[in-house]
Design goal:
six-stranded mixed beta sheet, Nucleotidyltransferase, domain 5, 18% strand, alpha/beta, single chain, globular, 2 domains, five-stranded mixed beta sheet
Length: 343
């Protein structure tokens, strides 16, 4: 079963065609910074496909409470996905636009939605519940969802038979996940992909009282605040660059502070995930920074020796992010009627 993988991320849309043996027959990447790649660009790229896919597997960031596993997309599913756009405005619109563009370019091919939130459907209530008024929680479904699930699922399986695993997806977006016996039990992102670690341009967790104070002091509107937190914060806000490679090469005070803040939050987050697991067998780094920035891995692990990191007690692994393989796995399993948990 050949699978066309459509991965709409925060800054690009990656397209790839995987053969029945998971070998890559074709791939391309379209830039889509802070906007949706044009349907014409997607169509032009797909015109170069060397073979017709049997199914298209789409990365969809948000599945809400409704979608806890992969699903074949029909008009009713698509309508529900559009209703979830407000929960992930930066990503959901791109995914839906890619869904429509692929359908037009490669008609009559089943499309499967694979969700970044689905892996975290196993989170216990104590890890998903915010201490907020009941009315808000019930009326709006306000809770912690978690993201990067496709990457965390693949990375956790790469740890083999390790029972207690912390996976670190470090890229432009970044999150951690505590995985116990293959199931997500805690994670750092919450209601939106803004919560948790310091990221390239996203702030990560911030005291909500500070945000309220800033809104009053600066008389900021909702859109202005959202833009600042999503696009002008993180290591970019601290050092004027969103590129970790540049940050590691610089020696000025701003760059050093940005790196120190990034590592401080990363170590603290890993320790929190270990606390949720009650121990640690393997620590897995993945994503662009997790895979390629050895210095970041070294600095993070240097402060975790008390957890057994750096000794034979805990394996430290670097795994190439392969969301495409996880999407392929889920799409095939769904169409074959197989149980994902047994694969």
């Amino acid at each position: 079963m050949r699978v066309l993988v459509v991965n709409a991320g925060s800054s690009s849309i990656k397209l790839s065609l995987l053969d029945a043996d998971d070998s890559e027959l074709w791939s391309t990447e379209l830039a889509a910074p802070r906007a949706v790649a044009e349907a014409g660009a997607v169509a032009a790229a797909l015109a170069e496909l060397p073979a017709r896919p049997d199914v298209a597997g789409h990365r969809i960031v948000h599945g809400g409470d409704r979608f806890r596993e992969a699903v074949v997309v029909d008009e009713h599913v698509e309508a529900e996905l559009r209703e979830l756009t407000a929960l992930a405005p930066l990503h959901q619109a791109k995914s839906l636009a890619a869904l429509d563009a692929v359908r037009r370019a490669v008609p009559n091919v089943p499309e499967v939605a694979c969700f970044d939130t689905a892996f975290h459907a196993t989170l216990p209530p104590e890890a998903t519940t915010y201490a907020l008024p009941r009315a808000w929680r019930e009326r709006y479904g306000v809770r912690r969802y978690g993201f990067h699930g496709l990457s965390h699922a693949y990375a956790a399986r790469s740890a083999g038979d390790a029972r207690k695993v912390v996976t670190c997806h470090l890229g432009a977006g970044a999150s951690l996940c505590a995985v116990l016996d293959g199931r997500s039990v805690d994670t750092t992102m919450g209601f939106t992909p803004l919560e948790g670690l310091v990221m390239a341009t996203r702030s990560g967790s911030i005291d909500p009282g500070l945000l309220l104070w800033l809104q009053r002091q600066e008389r900021l509107g909702v859109d202005e605040m959202a833009d600042a937190l999503e696009h002008e914060s993180g290591i970019f806000g601290l050092a004027g660059t969103a590129d970790m490679r540049e940050l590691l090469e610089r020696e000025d005070r701003d760059a050093q502070l940005a790196l120190d803040v990034y590592i401080h939050r990363l170590r603290a987050g890993i320790a929190a995930m270990v606390a949720s697991l009650g121990g640690l067998d393997a620590l897995v780094f993945t994503g662009g920074i997790g895979e390629r920035a050895a210095r970041v891995r070294e600095l993070a692990c240097a402060g975790l020796d008390y957890l057994g990191v750096g000794t034979s007690a805990v394996r430290v692994l670097t795994v190439r992010a392969r969301e495409d393989l996880e999407i392929t796995r889920q799409a095939r399993a769904l169409l074959r009627g197989e149980n994902l948990e047994r694969l």
